[in-house]
Each structure stands twice: as C-alpha cells, then as structure tokens.
Design brief:
Structural class: alpha/beta
Distance between the termini: 51 Å
GO biological process, one term: tRNA wobble position uridine thiolation
EC number: 2.8.1.13
CATH topology of the largest domain: Rossmann fold
Shape: globular
Number of domains: 3
Pfam families: tRNA_Me_trans, tRNA_Me_trans_C, tRNA_Me_trans_M
Helix content: 10-25%
CATH superfamily of the largest domain: HUPs
Organism: Methylosinus trichosporium (strain ATCC 35070 / NCIMB 11131 / UNIQEM 75 / OB3b)
Number of helices: 10
Oligomer: single chain
Number of strands: 17
Order of helices and strands: EHEHHEHHEEEHEHHEEHEEEEEEEEH
Radius of gyration: 23 Å
Main location: cytoplasm
C-alpha cells in the first residue's frame, strides 16, 4: 500500500470488489445462467452502483432444451436471464457457443467415458468455455471484473488472489473451479462466497426476481436424464462393446453389454445372478473398467480402496510453484469427488508437471478421469491450492497376477 497522492490509490479507496475506482466507474460482466444465484449476483452489484452487463452463453441446442428442468444455459434459462436483466435495467447479451461447447466438453466427455474413465464435464466447461470465452467477452466490453454465481470465495493475498471454500459448505463449488488460472483469478469475483443458499433466495425475493423459487440445476446440463451411456452411444456409435465380467481373482463371472453402462464403485445392476455375486454379506463392486479389452472387473469392497493417485494436467494456484514444494511433499487436504469432504493427504510433485497424492486413509471408488483437488489444512474455509485429473490409482489390495498381467489400464 502506498500513501495517497503517490500515484497509486490508498487501500481505503478500493471498492467492494477490491478495485481502485468508484463503483459507478467499474464495469462488471456477470455470467447469467438464468438461475437464482447469478441473478442475485447481478442484482447485488447493480444495487451497489456498479456498471453491470449481463452475458449468457447458449451452450447447446436451444430447441431441445425448452421447458427442460434441471439443466442450465439453454431454452427457458436464457429467457429467465433476459427477464432478470430487464427487471434490473441492465444490458444483456446472449452468445452462441454451442459448437465450441460440443467440441470441447460434450465430445470429450463421450470419448473419456467410452474409454472407461469418469470425466467431470463441469470442470471442462469452466476451464475451456466459460473462463475462456467469457473472459474474452468481458475484455471486449471493457469490463474491470467478471462475476459469477458460484459458491466460492476469492481474496487477495501473497502472490495474488486466492480461492477459498465457500461459507456455505453444503454449496461449496471449489471442486469444479480448481483449474482456474492465476490471471483469471485477478479478474474473477464471486459475491456469493459469503452467503448461504436460503439467504440468496431471500435476496431474490427482496429484488422481486421471478427466479426466486426456481429449482437448482441437478444434472449435467447435456445429460438431463442422468443416463450417461445414452449420450455416449449417440455420439460414439459402437462404443458399447460386449465383453466379460471378471472377478479380481481371475474368474469369469458373466457377460456385459458394454463398459459404458458401469462406473467404478457400482454395486447394483451388475447383471450377475445371486449365486454368482456371492453371499449378501459379501457383495461385489465394480473395481476397474478395462475398455481396451471390454472387461468389467469386480471384487469385494476392500478392492476399491485407493491409497495414492497419479495426476495429469495439474493446475497450481497456491503460493510459489508446485515444483518448489519441500522434498518430502506438502501436507494437504485432498478431494476426489464433489460430494465428499476433503481428507488428509500428502502432495508430491512429479517430473513433467504431474503430481502424486498419498492419502492418509484409503479412498474408495476412485476412477481415472476424476478430478483430485488440493486444499491447505486450514479448516472449513481452506484455500484451494489447485488440482489435477486422475491418471492412475494405486490400490491397497491389488488384483491377482492374472488380471494385472492383462490389465489394459494402469493401476
């Protein structure tokens, strides 16, 4: 901080977004999905006197999405965003990024899923569409900041702004934003990081927004039925190759209609008779998917336990650089699913920009393609240090030699 009159504004002159100019001279582009969260962000910033511009991305077929519940960025959602913008008296633009979304998110999802991985398309959407195209649009509009309705916080600190878990732990979306880059963080703002969901809905009512009671999005937007295999079969005909269901001890237990119909950790719907599946007290789970050999590998629950993972495409937004971590690694909290709390682990950088995460206690149902997100050990409001995508997992109880020798994917 410098003194006033030295050419740099005093810290007390920063507005509520941490920018050195009055609110009325600060242009903020708000990513408006048509839901209650982003609508309230636009309303809050407009009330505070900012020069607010709403932008909505149309990400997939408008006609198919009309009246479809539980999704975002299409049909009724675009209509709702327009109405909110009109209610607030702010300009609003709809940008068609359907082709880019299909190529970078949907097609990649289908290919990854068909290969036996468990991709996280919401991460890819933020990484390759929203936080790329929206940034370019915001810059073209002369914006000082880009605001979204995500439940996550950002604060200035050493080395630039950092990401932190949201106050409302049940709504925290940090898992999906680990790939945000440092330059993006400098421009991004998340006004809902300090709000609970009920308070946001109450604000929507106070602002008299039509979306105040609108249900939250539940499904992946382009898979509203929740049946991932349907879209994989549509985009990749022939991806459902029949094959064998194999026990980790090498026994062939049955046949399946395609690995795309299974996920790691799945217990029900394996297509095995009760006599084959075993006693009720000893159920079988999907422990691996070998798409190359069209095999579904099953075993007891202990075969699902994972002690470490190797990561690819690692993004580091903590202090310093990933390669400069202590020789023995860094104690962190790691999260392998958005629905699970972070657990104690140790992070080790690897040559080539990858990383290894060693869990203090076993994780279950870990699959290649999932994201593994790093946090510091600072409690519920921990800082997001980055993350990567799981390339391979080391299991506490490895399969027997016959399976390992033929396994098409790394373990």
């Amino acid at each position: 901080m410098t003194t006033a009159g030295a050419g740099v504004p005093d810290e007390t002159e920063l507005n509520s977004l941490g920018l050195p100019k009055p609110a009325q001279d600060t242009r903020v582009v708000v990513a408006m999905s048509g839901g209650v969260d982003s609508s309230v962000v636009a309303a809050l910033l407009a009330e505070q006197g900012y020069d607010v511009v709403g932008v909505t991305l149309q990400l997939y077929d408008h006609g198919e999405a009309v009246h479809r519940k539980g999704s975002c960025c299409a049909g009724q959602d675009i209509h709702d965003a327009r109405r909110v913008a009109a209610r607030l008296g702010i300009p609003h633009y709809v940008l068609d990024f359907e082709t880019r979304f299909r190529e970078t998110v949907i097609d990649t999802f289908a290919q990854s899923y068909a290969s036996g991985e468990t991709p996280v398309p919401c991460v890819a959407c933020n990484q390759f569409v929203k936080f790329v195209d929206l940034f370019e649009t915001a810059k073209d509009l002369g914006a000082d900041a880009l605001a979204t309705g995500h439940y996550i916080a950002s604060r200035p600190g050493r080395g630039g702004r950092g990401l932190y878990r949201a106050m409302d732990a049940a709504r925290d979306q940090s898992y999906f934003l680990f790939a945000t880059t440092r330059p993006q963080l400098d421009m991004l703002r998340f006004p809902l990081g300090e709000y609970a969901k009920p308070d946001v809905r109450e604000l929507a009512r106070r602002f008299d927004l039509d979306v105040a009671e609108k249900p939250d999005s539940q499904d992946i937007c382009f898979v509203p039925s929740g049946h991932y295999s349907d879209i994989v079969e549509r985009l990749s005909p022939g991806a459902a190759v029949p094959g064998e269901i194999v026990h980790v001890d090498g026994r062939v237990l049955g046949r399946h209609a395609g690995v795309i119909h299974y996920t790691i950790g799945q217990r029900r719907g394996l297509g095995l008779g009760a006599a084959v599946a075993g006693r009720a007290s000893d159920p079988l789970y999907v422990v691996r998917l070998d798409a190359a050999r069209a095999r579904v590998i099953v075993g007891p629950r202990e075969a699902l336990e994972t002690r470490s993972v190797r990561l690819r495409d690692v993004n580091w937004i903590g202090e310093g650089e990933l390669a400069d971590l202590p020789e023995g690694g860094l104690e962190i909290e790691a999260r392998v699913r958005s629905t699970r709390p972070p657990t104690p682990a140790r992070l080790l950088p690897l040559a080539g920009g990858g990383a290894q995460v060693l869990f203090e206690t076993g994780e279950f149902g870990v699959s290649p393609g999932q994201a593994c997100v790093f946090y510091d050990r600072d409690g519920a409001r921990a800082r997001v240090l980055g993350g990567g995508f799981i390339a391979a997992a080391e299991h506490a109880a490895e399969p027997t030699e016959p399976i390992l020798a033929e396994e098409g994917r790394a373990t």
